[in-house]
Write a structure and sequence with these properties.
The chain has 393 residues and is an alpha/beta fold. It contains 15 helices and 14 strands. Strand 7, helix 8 and strand 8 form a beta-alpha-beta unit.
Length: 393
């Protein structure tokens, strides 16, 4: 390695340490479930996005094992060459039915799906209107598409209206938002956004990574939660590595949208397909999620229990509706120290710090799963109370 490269990298790393933003990898031994062993330490994890507890579900594991025997491990090629198996076809059909769309298309990651969508729908003559708290993949997608970016205040349809009224009258208009925001767990005001899209002839795209399988009567996500259909939200992206417990992502929409992605989206065309065994496992998880009223009800009960406990401790948190429940601490140092105290007590709850969140808005990000128990939630609340007492403001 050249001296200049070494110096450049070291300076960047030193800056991260100085700003108290250092991240480190943790090693998990065993399946994704509430009781885990992390770096050799037994913990109860409150940080997973496995919202319905499907990642280690026996039926999902069995589907993957059976498909491994049938298809092997790797897909071997991109979807458009010979990597597209019957397992992929069946999963795409199931996801289209699950979301009430004409078709669905699989991607290896949510990041890639968002890149593909925005680059397909917007270019340098178009304008993309983005919620300020959108996921990083959406922000990067707009930058790489070269479109004009107009960011509106978080979950503020009034400010979006102003942006739409002020935008130049050229090109297409694309409104992009998370369905459930990953750091605060709040739900986007989709009915208002859909109304604005109709009024201004804009296209509404929703990244519902954290809403699908959790919200709505059958897990249809933030759209179902608001009673919206494909006419209201014509462009829907969802991930499979959260509520569905596996990995990958998909886009659901009209026949024309999916065909346009197949024909033109570089992140789709030039990527090896996900393993067929993963598609088969996900098909099993989608079928479970669709009929998982009991899991969603249990999860909602845990959320209410956690919310009541946080209220007793005088802690600021969002309404207990989605599994993402941030506890606002403010100071980066204190948030990190409280997270370390919780870890020492056997609870894995990450501290979310700048630049992921703005300065002064560090928080603990608690995520619940239907696999958690009431006793585990109560134990977390007791440990949190003790940790806060031990770490001065």
């Amino acid at each position: 390695m050249s001296k200049s490269l070494q110096a450049f990298l070291q300076a960047r790393l030193d800056g991260v340490r100085t700003d108290r933003r250092w991240r480190r990898l943790r090693t998990l031994d065993g399946p994704q479930q509430p009781e885990q062993v992390i770096d050799g330490q037994p913990v109860v994890a409150f940080c997973s996005n496995d919202y319905l507890g499907l990642a280690a579900d026996p039926a999902v594991v069995a589907a993957a094992r059976e498909a491994l025997d049938r298809y092997g491990v790797g897909a071997g090629a991109a979807h458009l060459i010979n990597g597209h198996t019957r397992a992929h076809v069946e999963l795409e059909q199931a996801l289209a039915r699950f979301t009430g769309r004409e078709r669905a298309l699989l991607f290896s990651t949510g990041y890639m799906a968002n890149l593909a969508l925005v680059q397909t729908l917007a270019g340098r003559h178009d304008t993309v209107f983005e919620d300020r708290w959108n996921h990083a993949s959406l922000i990067d997608a707009v930058r790489l598409a070269g479109a004009r970016s107009q960011r509106y205040r978080h979950a503020d349809p009034g400010h979006l209206r102003e942006r739409l009224e002020q935008a130049p009258d050229r090109g297409h208009r694309l409104i992009v938002t998370d369905g459930v925001f990953s750091m605060d767990g709040d739900i986007a005001p989709l009915p208002e956004l859909a109304a604005l899209a109709r009024e201004f002839d804009a296209w509404l795209m929703v990244d519902d990574a954290h809403g699908l399988s959790v919200l709505g009567a059958t897990g249809g996500g933030s759209c179902q939660h608001h009673g919206l259909g494909a006419d209201d939200v014509p462009i829907l992206m969802g991930t499979l590595g959260k509520g569905f417990g596996t990995a990958g992502a998909f886009v659901a929409g009209s026949e024309a949208l999916i065909e346009a992605l197949i024909q033109t989206a570089r992140p789709y065309i030039y990527t090896t397909a996900m393993p067929a065994a993963l598609a088969a496992a996900t098909l099993a998880s989608v079928r479970i999620a669709e009929a998982a009223e009991d899991r969603r009800a249990h999860l909602q009960g845990l959320l209410q229990r956690l919310g009541a406990g946080l209220d007793r401790l005088g802690l600021q948190h969002p309404p207990p509706v989605t599994p993402i429940q941030p506890v606002h601490i403010g100071d980066t140092r204190r948030a990190s120290a409280v997270a370390e105290r919780l870890l020492a007590a056997g609870f894995l709850v990450p501290a979310i710090r700048p630049p992921t969140v703005p300065e002064g808005q560090a928080r603990l990000r608690i995520t619940l799963s239907a696999a958690h128990t009431e006793a585990q939630v109560d134990a977390l609340l007791r440990a949190l109370e003790q940790a806060l007492e031990q770490v001065s403001p």
